[in-house]
From TrEMBL, chain A:
InterPro entries xref list: Bet3, NO_sig/Golgi_transp_ligand-bd, TRAPP_component
Family of the protein in this entry: Belongs to the TRAPP small subunits family. BET3 subfamily.
Name listed for the protein in its UniProt record: Trafficking protein particle complex subunit
Annotated localization: Endoplasmic reticulum; Golgi apparatus, cis-Golgi network
Gene: LOC105142392
Organism: Populus euphratica
PANTHER family: TRAFFICKING PROTEIN PARTICLE COMPLEX SUBUNIT 3
Tagged with keyword Nucleus: no
From TrEMBL, chain B:
Superkingdom of the organism of origin: Eukaryota
Coiled coil segments of this chain: none
GO-annotated biological processes: endoplasmic reticulum to Golgi vesicle-mediated transport
Gene3D superfamilies for the chain: Trafficking protein particle complex subunit 3
Family: Belongs to the TRAPP small subunits family. BET3 subfamily.
GO cellular component terms listed in the entry, alphabetical order: cis-Golgi network; trans-Golgi network; TRAPP complex
SUPFAM superfamilies xref list: Ligand-binding domain in the NO signalling and Golgi transport
Protein's UniProt name: Trafficking protein particle complex subunit 6B
Organism from which the protein derives: Populus euphratica
PANTHER family listed in its UniProt record: GEO08327P1, TRAFFICKING PROTEIN PARTICLE COMPLEX SUBUNIT 6B
Parts of the chain that traverse the membrane: none
């Protein structure tokens, strides 16, 4: 069978079912608020948001692979590019860019200028230390782990903290070779 | 038209929110998990109804407010209206959505079905937890319109879902 051409983030976003972003944004805000009440410690909220994102990423990767037709990326560079241009676009409707590569190509930044998660959001002073969008870093980490890449994802810039963009640093820790749960002769 | 995101975003977020509260934070106290999920919905409903009624004159009675929930409010959230509205004219309203979107897209989490309980009841339990969220949304929306009430969901005829609103007097 001839390989299917990969689809652009725009084309996929145009073809999926949409919902009102307000509902999504306010729901996320209400979850963060409830977590702050229930867990009390801002550090713990950061951790739980990351964990929730990780679990979502683990599931979202299937939809991403099914709809994007991307074939195996040759290296981490291509992977980061695909996440930024196709992944972010097909789910959130906003594209991201990749910058700040290190010399050996294992660490880069994904930069988001526009982020639907933070519409209407302002952090009160009591939430210093909160990484409001930590769910996103979890999603990226979870999704990459499903394609055998162990990463560390951290926020470098955050508009809710006064920066001019959202910048996620993605560092490749190791590439786990794929293991098959079955033997050839079975 | 306002900004939109892929439906998978909200599906993934809701599934994970419910599972975090039920399986991680309050795994031994489902009634507390339910209350938190409802509270999150309440917050969302309250804010959305505030936004969607900004340009409107005040509703003159309960029925008018309920009709707003059935038509405009539901359309903003689910791109369809409530299919059937019934009332006993004594403060109870039943809103039926013949194909409630959040249930039709919901998939069972296989990992929770490996326990000793049979999968049917586990799945039903997860579904009822999930429904605290839209119940909270409706209660929050009405509360913002000055109507205190209690809201419950009935899924005895899936994929239809009925929301029962009891206005407090």
């Amino acid at each position: 069978m001839a390989p299917v051409a990969p689809r652009s983030g725009d084309a996929i976003f145009a073809s999926v079912e949409h919902v009102n972003a307000e509902l999504f944004t306010l729901t996320y805000g209400a979850i963060v608020r409830q977590l702050l009440t229930d867990l009390e410690e801002v550090e713990e909220v950061n951790k739980q948001l990351d964990q929730m994102g990780y679990n979502i990423g683990v599931r979202l990767i299937d939809e991403f692979l099914a709809k994007s037709n991307v074939s195996r990326c040759v290296d981490f560079k291509e992977t980061a590019d695909v996440i930024a241009k196709v992944g972010f676009k097909m789910f959130l409707g906003v594209g991201a860019s990749v910058t700040n590569w290190d010399a050996d190509g294992t660490c880069c930044s994904i930069v988001l200028g526009d982020n639907p998660l933070v519409d209407f959001v302002e952090l009160p002073d009591t939430c210093q230390g909160l990484y409001y969008c930590n769910i996103l870093s979890g999603v990226v980490r979870g999704a990459l782990e499903m394609v055998s890449m162990k990463t560390e994802v951290t926020w470098v810039r955050d508009m809710l903290r006064g920066d001019d963009a959202f910048e996620l640093q993605v560092k490749l820790l190791k590439q786990v070779p794929e293991e098959y749960p079955y033997k050839d002769d079975e | 038209m306002g900004r939109e995101v892929s439906e998978s975003c909200i599906d993934g977020l809701l599934t994970e929110m419910v599972s975090s509260y039920c399986n991680r934070f309050y795994s031994n106290t489902p009634e507390l998990a339910a209350r938190r999920i409802e509270a999150i919905g309440y917050q969302v409903g309250h804010q959305l109804s505030e936004r969607y009624t900004m340009e409107r004159p005040r509703f003159t009675d309960h029925l008018e407010a309920i009709k707003f929930i059935c038509k405009d409010f539901w359309s903003e959230l689910f791109k369809k209206q409530i299919d059937n509205l019934k009332t006993n004219h004594r403060g109870t309203f039943v809103l039926q959505d013949n194909k409630f979107r959040w249930l039709s897209r919901m998939s069972g989490d296989p990992s929770v079905e490996n326990g000793t309980q049979d999968p049917e009841s586990k799945a039903a339990q997860a579904m009822s937890m999930y429904l605290y969220f839209p119940c909270g949304i409706i209660r929050g929306a009405l509360s913002n319109l000055g109507i205190p009430c209690a809201v419950s969901a009935d899924i005895s005829s899936l994929p239809a879902c009925s929301f029962v609103i009891r206005i407090k007097v």
